[in-house]
Write a structure and sequence with these properties.
This protein is mainly α. It has one helix and no strands.
Amino acid sequence: MINAVKYTGDFVKGIFYAAYSFAAILVLMIQELSNL
């Protein structure tokens, strides 16, 4: 049970990290487009 909780925690952290990275790239792209 503890192992499943730890695995779920890592999975959630992975999703948050991916979403954060995607948002950061999106912001950079928008800034680049604004500069054109």
